[in-house]
Fold these 3 entries.
Entry 1:
Amino acid sequence: MSELTHLDRTGAANMVDVSDKAETSRIARAEGRVVMLRETVDLIRAGDAKKGDVLGTARLAGIMAAKRTHELIPLCHPLLLTKVKVECEVDDTLPGVRVAAEVGVRGQTGVEMEALTAVSVACLTLYDMVKAADRGMRIEGIRLLAKSGGRSGEYRAEA
């Protein structure tokens, strides 16, 4: 197991010093899903939710969240993101909505937290947009799928 870099030698939390790390292109991809009643999926697909465009609003919320991750997660560095892509897709097999995010940066630290934050907030926004119709929705499976760049190299989640 790797050393926990956000803890100093006394165990106190601290922001990691990345000043000596090389600037590289870094990409992270994450996913999650919101499982809901089939009737709720039909409501989203028909565009009949009282609050408006459910998928578009969730996508935008995910993008905005990725850009503000450093304000939400105490020890994250503020990053000049070069790419944030969030996709929200209805999946009748769940039934529900699958959310995926891809975030990129050219910098000294990775963007895993930004991708995970984008997915998390998009899922929460989906819940908020249709909770009046379905309070029993479940947010599930939020995880890092892949990352590249930086000293630790490539990571790919198992299927």
Entry 2:
Amino acid sequence: MGAGGWNWNDAWIFVSAVIAERLERDRALHAALPVTGATLADVIAAADFLHHSVPSREDLEESVRRLAGAGLIRVDEDLIQVAPPGEQLWRTRPFSGLSSAVMTLQTQLNRVAEPGYSEWDLDEQAYNAAVREYSLRLADGR
């Protein structure tokens, strides 16, 4: 746990959600589609990109609950969006590049917000489907 109650996994999932949502927003805008948010598979892909590992179901569920409860992200089924306070936190962070973004964000989280709690459950079936979708993307080279 960090001094303010946020842990490394929370920052990892938050940065992953920011990256995933921005990529999805760019894809939607280029294809003239509505912007809906990032899927769990998108967040898992970004998490793997950042840390070369896939978060466990339990870690993902716990961090999403804490981030959503603090008002930094919104979750609707399997879609995750960065909420305005999360956007503000991301935009005002000290720039450090992606290699240290998670550590920088953990420090920022501990300075500006307390973890919250949201009643969101990630069942094993939904998690496995998201991991399977991400694995298929890797196999296809996407």
Entry 3:
Amino acid sequence: MSRPIAKDHDAKRMHILKVAARVFADQGFARASMAQVAKDCGISKANIYHYYSSKDALLFDILDTYLSALRDRILGLDLAGLAPEAQLGRIVTETLRAYEGMDHEHKIQTEGIPLLPPEQQKILKAYQRDLVGQMSGIVAAVAPEAFAQDSRKLRATVMSIFGMLNWFYMWNSPADRQARDDYAGLVTRLTLSGLRGL
């Protein structure tokens, strides 16, 4: 007879994900152990294996939960009726807001994704690709003449925008909502000014 799922299973799982993300970010995935994660969660090592069969399974769930929620939040924005320039500002702002409180999850992407099996990497990269695709369409609409027949320039531009957003936590991690919105405005203005000069 299978063991019934506890009523607080989802809450405990989310707690494990948050704690594990911090442990993996602080120690590096290779050095971190399930025993350390369990200790920091305040549960036994045996109990954590009730939720995750391995450290890799835990890593995948952290990244899958984070990236799928990020993708759904950003792609779910209502951009109807907005000019491309306003769409860009809305996405940039919402992306930085979505990053708030997710520094550890964000940090372990670079190290973590390549360590996972190819089929899991494919799932996670698809979330990222969806975000890049949405941004690409908007940037191309802002300056269609600049990117006509030049997909490499478009990709370089879009990845530069994400670069400005993705490393914000490195030098301004305690930023509050207003600081994030202010920086989003700066990134948007820099981008639009640059696009006009292409």
